[in-house]
Amino acid sequence: MKKRSLISVVCPSYNSGNTLEQTLLSVFNQTYQYWEIIIVDGGSTDNTKEIVLYFQKQGKNIRFEQFLERSGPGPAREYGISLARGDYLAFIDSDDLWVKSKLKLQLSFMLETNILFSYTKYDLIDQKGTRKEGPILW
Predict the structure, then answer these.
(1) What sign does the dihedral 45-7-74-100 (CA atoms) show?
(2) Taking the model in full, what pTM does it have?
């Protein structure tokens, strides 16, 4: 029997209380459910930690790691990578949203084509919720 691939989702955050809940819901609602999410927080002073604790109490597979070195999302991602237990890594920013099939489709593509790295197109959404097509990367 083939084992499922664990995906470690790394999410840097800093004062993300106004967007983090929707971001987390977009991960929780994935059709592929074998993942862990690691929130690496850069010393937020808002309700970011409380949002994560709420979801932890709901039994969600989420870890909250404090990264008090406020040096931006890059070092926070690196720290999250060092904590990851997954076979694959995925990155989401604390103000991003994923479509429900993102992890399933991306992992399936990677396994079928035997590649170790992939990326996807994205759309930009402004503060009013207006969707704008993101850049196409070739």
Answers:
(1) negative
(2) 0.88
